[in-house]
């Protein structure tokens, strides 16, 4: 592996871990602030049992959002944001850094990266971030998003008062393993998401660069990065919606004594299918696509912008040495 060298755009040295930390973290924070309300609506829809019994109608994403605002104020849409912001910097740093590392490991001897290598690098990067950061972050986030208390009523005291309090409560009541509940499903979801995401983004970016020679080995205009990020971000949710819905229900409640993860996943799946029908596995797909697709558009646009600014501010790297 040391014999091959994977080059970045324009023959540059691939982005460093520090660049990925700053650019990825900044992109992730912006994405979370812009798109978190849609994630809250998605979680509420996935946890909803409406439509299970005769006479009840499934509530759509607009009605779910309005209901949250009406009962819990607009701040209710940002429940669990603290958990997301706490984990978003390491999550994005791990995603982009591990993706670059896996790409180098899977590259051909001449340093070129095939489409298959890009797909596998995205898959492994998604699994890595899921195990390291995303699973505990989502357990805390979902516990807070699932609370139906009113933020406008000071007497309505929630079980979880903040993200740190939720994490400590889960640790105290259920043990450290509870923070990694659903890790297999989360890894599967994140892996397939990032495999599809990086593959689609890379292919679309290279296509636009070929069609526009003036941008060969250069960053595309921000609006084009936003568009291809939007398209690539929409691919994953449609392919793994059932995984995400089952994962959400699994992480929402404590495990029963003696129950294995496989047993819980099987029980949740059977119960959903029997009581709510196959459509239940796609609950929240609309806000999820609306959350993930623009989220990836924001992430890639901000990441590319910050990465370029950081690289332009560094001393050029030539022949394996920094110029004096």
TrEMBL record:
Presence of keyword Electron transport: no
InterPro entries: MCP, MCP_dom_sf, MCP_transmembrane, TXTP-like
SUPFAM superfamilies cross-referenced by the UniProt entry: Mitochondrial carrier (SSF103506)
Record keywords: Membrane, Mitochondrion, Mitochondrion inner membrane, Repeat, Transmembrane, Transmembrane helix, Transport
Membrane topology: Multi-pass membrane protein
Source organism, top-level taxon: Eukaryota
Subcellular location: Mitochondrion inner membrane
Solcar repeats: 15-105, 113-207, 220-309
Family per similarity comment: Belongs to the mitochondrial carrier (TC 2.A.29) family.
Record-given protein name: Mitochondrial succinate-fumarate transporter
Organism name: Lithohypha guttulata
Gene: SFC1
